[in-house]
Amino acid sequence: MRVLVIDDQAAIRSLLARALGPSGFEVVLAASAEEALTAVEGDSFDLYVVDQMLPGMSGLALVKELRRRGQRGILMLTAKDAVADRVLGLEAGADDYLGKPFAIEELVARLQALSRRTEDESAATLVYEDLVFDPATMQARRGSRLLDLSPTERNLLAFFLRHPRQALSRAQILEAVWSYDFGGEDNVLEVYVGYLRRKTEQDGEERLIQTVRGYGYALRRS
User: If you average pLDDT over residues 141-155, what whole number do you get?
Assistant: First the structure.
């Protein structure tokens, strides 16, 4: 499993190179977003660890560019731990988020979870009622209408579509889409469900993402 680590701090790069190798990861290091994009042009990687605070092109901008190029399995590192900062990173296209300082064991576990998630995702078109998502093209539709979704919105929609009519707990959804639970006081899941509802319920379209009070959500007709 090849991992590209992008961090401007030499000590962090050295630490991750030493720590991830024994866990079975082949690590390539980059000190800037520009250096990382040069590496991506000439090589292929399974996972990315991106520091949010990079010189020059920011970590957020790098994540957006990696997703534009079809890259997945992106974990963002940052000293910022507010919910708004997490949402920014996830909205940019990060698949997971880890605040500094962090435990190496947790970082390894999150990378392993990301690896499993990207490997297990099916290429089959997902359909419920008139809601369709094609993982091959990353396009979502409601009827004939193309939905303009962010990477995180696509991941959330795909998870709902893989489990139609099932009551899914908040913890289940957070683990599947973000690899971990943000904590009971955080509302990132509710924020993204709101985004999806606004984009899938235009022009009087029936609500398909239902709230299961005190538990989570379900993709089903009311």
Answer: 92
